[in-house]
Amino acid sequence: MTLHEDLVRTVVYQHPQALEAISTHYCPGCTHGIAHRLIAEVIDELGIQEQTILVAPVGCAVFAYDYLAVDGVEAAHGRAPAMATGIKRSLPDRIVFTYQGDGDLAAIGTAEIIHAAARGEHITTIFINNAIYGMTGGQMAPTSLPDQRTTSSPFGRNPAIAGNPIRMTELIAAIEGSAYVVRRSLHNVREIRKAKKAIKTAFRVQQAGLGFAMVELLSACPTNWGLSAPDALKWVEEHMVPYYPLGDYKVLDAVKALEDRE
Asked: Is 95 contained in some domain?
């Protein structure tokens, strides 16, 4: 027996089928790519690639349909939940999810997401929170932190003038129609693994018809924050996590039972 014949190869990871095999266009250190991969892995594991429909609005989130190998449509700015609602009601056997940034979901689209949750729409929302407008030049977003400098708040966000940041996960969790609302982060491996589990649960909530599900993901935007990629991840941990605590904010008993069967 030769040395090569004695070796046994075990596949420990492979490229997700639901993720396009193309190079990323995102800025170095941007964690949108991580979020895409997690979603693709979950779609593969659940075997729902042919059933899934992505709704992406304006902002960096719009590029999700370039990377996820599922049917996808683009919504007007902030209107992804409305479009997803129409698709899901027309095609109830499909898995429909929105992929939205904070400038979209928490600003022009606030009413849409609140009422989708209130109606208990059977859709899933992946909410990317990087505390800034990423695509349009780094302006202050509804989620920008107090004293955070942006191109539209060069001296730092002043809550007395610009108002306080909006904690969307806490807001949506308080709405009766929501079934699963959690906040995770993408700043280290441990939190990324937790994020994937949450995304999978959110899709399973839709499969089970339990109500509206949303997973908020704290994300890095090194370019608009003016930081290196490693420093941006530290900034998430040191500044965003204290203001936006990670955890489960709404998990119905039926969802807990679903997770127990996992």
From this structure: yes
